[in-house]
Task: structure prediction
Amino acid sequence: MAGVAGNRRTIYSKNVIRQAFQELLLEKEFEKITIKEIAERADINRGTFYKYYKDTAALLEEIETELVREISGNLQQESLSLDLWLSKLLTILYENPSTTHLILLNNSHLLNLLMTEIKPETFKRFALYFKEATTEELELCLSYFVCGSIGLIEHWLKAFPEMAPDAVAALLIQIFTTNVYERE
Result:
């Protein structure tokens, strides 16, 4: 049953296309990756690529959507403590370095998802510390919190990939709970 979604040949073809694409993402910029290169790396013909994807942007969008769905499923476990939640999130990102790097650079679905998921709880916590803050000021605090965290995560993935996700989660928690201006 060739061409049927979910059959072995379809699954195999999509997997080798994705693997080739993700390898190329680690070597060069997204905009410079061609379908010909993906097909050659995956050892398929270009027609096979076009059978499943319109272009490289459609392939990236599918990979992003699946990663965001995986992250979202983990983020919605409300009973997790912040350190476990962060550890799970960082493990997912760590296991998908090429896609994660591209997503973080483009501030795509991942940033929007993180903002949406953590905003209500984070607003409550910020309001406890910044009792006189306006909604606009709380929005700025949240932006600082999320963008700073994403910057740290991106730098970790690029510069220190040998660090374990749990260690980076612990560092983020330490940063969140430290008052660097407190006098001794």
Remarks:
- The chain has a mean pLDDT of 81.
- Residues 60-177 form one domain.
